[in-house]
Amino acid sequence: MAMKPIDEIHKRRTFAIISHPDAGKTTITEKLLLYGNQIQLAGTVKGKKSGRHATSDWMEMEKERGISVTTSVMQFPYQDAMVNLLDTPGHADFSEDTYRTLTAVDSALMVIDAAKGVEERTVKLMEVCRLRDTPILTFINKLDRDVRDPIEVLDEIEDVLNIECAPVTWPIGMGKSFKGVYNLLRDATVLYKTGQGHTIQDVREIEGLNNPELDQAVGADYAQELRDMLELVRGASHDFDLQRFLDGRLTPVFFGTALGNFGVDHMLDGLVKWAPAPQPREAVERKVEAEEPKMTGFVFKIQANMDPRHRDRIAFMRICSGKYQKGIKLKQCRTGKEVRISDALTFLAGERDNVEEAFAGDIIGLHNHGTIQIGDTFTEGEDLRFTGIPHFAPELFRRVVLNDPLKSKQLHKGLTQLAEEGATQVFFPLRNNDVVLGAVGTLQFDVVAARLKAEYGVECRYEPVNVTTARWMEADSERELASFERKAYDNLARDGAGHLTYLAPTRVNLQLTEERHPEIRFLETREI
Ligand code: G4P
């Protein structure tokens, strides 16, 4: 019998992984898919050195560089839950994309390399999670290596990230003598076997901390050390508290090795048990509850040409309330247009599938023919605008010069479409025919040039341009804006979506212009 929509919604767990590059995000993703029965043998998602590559790694360039440029969505059932994992690009240059993806989740998993502790990117991503008090689970990875003292790592997480740690499991040994973990909540030890990383292991569990079987299994020294250690840990750390976790104040901590596929399932058990089902979401007009019968959603990412054979663009929409059903009529609130949607996609482990229905918490992919923008809200008719999806002003700028001047139309189209994905911005100065590309990181420029060539048949190069920063303009009246447009004409441009922007040659120039024109608001982010 089909479940009621509300029950389906309550089953959803939509989360993303935050971590510093190399902490093990890809490896964990792979193991999660193994538990979700989406792949038979772990190791098929990615192996940088082995030549295998992730089904989500669709671009030659990212294979070459070994970074994951794309964000993909993976849905899998686990126990009674339906888990949605939103992959986030790990490279710093793609942080904008990651930030927006984090606006579409209800919880996050923080992965820490136990040898390295809290690293810089994790700090930044935690700041983003803080903006919405997103509940965080923590997985401390690579216990099969010689790593730092676990207590020291927990202290560092508490100090640097300002979040309380509640260990749910505790490791026994490390490196070559990693024996397993003790589960503090279940009072049971789970033993580790090496060389089983590609499969779901048959694990042996020993109930009770004082069970002599434990001494036999891990050795009397390790068993005693564990007992002593736990006394210390229990005194010095926090007990798990569901409400504090949901408030984003406390994180349950799990230890293990993603490579050895050990401990990841403990974390997954915690996720489906404790992480929140789809949360209410703020729109300008009102707060929208996930259980509302009518469907609403917003677009947090647009990705072009995911499959080179299809050459299409997909807008990723997070469903905020209600249910998507094939053939549903939705209103795109920004344009007021109504569209019938009968070919939304889900991404089951990278496979594209037409879905018949999807529920609040799920992500669906809409085919986009250039009419959908990041931040667009869709409803069944109500005028709503979900808030909190940022566009950041780029910090690096280049003039784009065509090798073949006759291809200017393709160039404009390519840059505008790529800008819709949100990682770059394109600007068309009012005073000349230049094309200026803005990005948050330098790697973006290479990605754009490679994709222009591969996907649009346009070859280009970059030249320096005298722009330091960009600001979007807003004013109380159209008249003020028009008057400013006349005065500052030489420094103004339109971005890919047609918004007026000020391209400042220097920070001082921006400051002076801001002082001279108090009637104009110069915005560093354009919230959509
Ligand atoms: P990322 O997506 O966060 O960047 O990390 P990824 O999973 O790619 O892992 C980075 C490296 O760390 C990989 O090694 C991976 O095999 C290794 N790794 C991940 N988890 C564990 C673990 O639990 N224990 C150990 N010992 N290593 C782990 P690599 O040599 O860079 O690449 P590969 O050839 O193994 O893919």
From TrEMBL:
An annotated GO cellular component: cytosol
A GO BP entry: regulation of translational termination
Leader sequence residues: none
Residue numbers binding GTP: 19-26, 87-91, 141-144
Chief localization: cytoplasm
Sequence ranges assigned to domain Tr-type G in this UniProt record: 10-279
Protein family according to the UniProt entry: Belongs to the TRAFAC class translation factor GTPase superfamily. Classic translation factor GTPase family. PrfC subfamily.
Protein name: Peptide chain release factor 3
Organism: Alloalcanivorax xenomutans
Lineage, highest ranks first: Bacteria, Pseudomonadati, Pseudomonadota, Gammaproteobacteria, Oceanospirillales
The gene coding this protein: prfC
